[in-house]
Amino acid sequence: EVHLVESGGGLVQPGGSLRLSCAASGFIFSSNAMNWVRQAPGKGREWVAAINSGGGSTSYADSVKGRFTISRAHDKNTVYLQMNSLKPEDTAVYYCNANLSSRNYWGQGTQVTVSS
After folding, report:
1. How far apart are CA 3 and CA 27, in angstroms?
2. What was the pLDDT predicted at 82?
3. What is the pLDDT, as a whole number, of residue 6?
4. Can you give the pLDDT at residue 58?
5. What is the DSSP string of 44-104?
6. pLDDT recorded at residue 59
7. Which SS3 state, helix, strand or coil, does residue 113 take?
8. How far is CA 2 from each of CA 98, 106, 112, rounded to the nearest angstrom?
9. CA-CA distances (angstroms) from residue 60 to 1, 16, 63?
10. Tell me, what's the pLDDT at 18?
11. pLDDT tens digits, one per residue of 77-99
């Protein structure tokens, strides 16, 4: 059974940093691309970043480019999202996502709140 468990969220001041983690199990982690997606209050889900199976290729939404970095550790079956220069508009629940055989899997999400 596929499990994705996010952690690392919290309350941070504008300009601060957080690192989110997503521990994956139940599938061959090293063979699959991974995504981070967020949902702000009252809005739909927004794709944030993606990393390919090998970790050598990444892509970002324009809203986070230059501030966020996605990475993965195959020995830990974990994908990370380093978030720097956080802004109030980054406030959202952040979800880890894997698309396996055309089916989307999601974690429970971790809340990130950027506020002074």
Report:
1. 9
2. 98
3. 97
4. 98
5. -EEEEEEE-TTSS-EEE-TTTTTTEEEEEETTTTEEEEEE-S--GGG-EEEEEEEEETTEE
6. 98
7. strand
8. 9, 9, 24
9. 28, 19, 8
10. 98
11. 999 999 999 999 999 999 999 99
Tens of pLDDT, residues 44-63: 999 999 999 999 999 999 99
Q: How many residues does the chain have?
A: 116
The position carrying tokens 């230059």 is 66
| Sign of CA pseudo-dihedral 115, 10, 90, 40 | negative
Q: Which residues contact 68 (CB under 8 A, 6 or more apart)?
A: 48, 49, 60, 81, 82, 83, 84
pLDDT at residue 91, as a whole number: 98
Residue whose pair of structure tokens reads 């794709």 in the numeric block: 47
